[in-house]
Amino acid sequence: xxxxxxxxxxxxxxxxxxxxxxxxxxxxxxxxxxxxxxxxxxxxxxxxxxxxxxxxxxxxxxxxxxxxxxxxxxxxxxxxxxxxxxxxxxxxxxxxxxxxxxxxxxxxxxxxxxxxxxxxxxxxxxxxxxxxxxxxxxxxxxxxxxxxxxxxxxxxxxx
Length: 159
Hints:
mainly alpha; Four Helix Bundle (Hemerythrin (Met), subunit A); 83% helix; single chain
């Protein structure tokens, strides 16, 4: 395998972190967004003010895209630094697995956010408590990113 091919495969891994996170974020935002629109409709039908805070819930799965972007940049920088060499497979695997982890976190965050929309629209209470639950699953995404960065930083050229 040529040096250029190894670099390209490593870069594909960098992009795959964003790709898989995008799938999860899209599905999570769709679930929460659908719930937010339905909750607003319910509020309008009951002549209640529609809470703007539902936008926070609907957009919450988007943060995993930021983490995936960070991973993409760091993986790409590492693959350029080591010139492909024997580390392309680590960069590929790291991108794929970080992306999948971030994607699942975003998907389930969206599902939780959907229920948060429903509960908050009904009661107009518990916004902070709902955010705390979303924060717990957000922490999972942060762990995926941080552990990925730690692993990536262990990749060194042999001396």
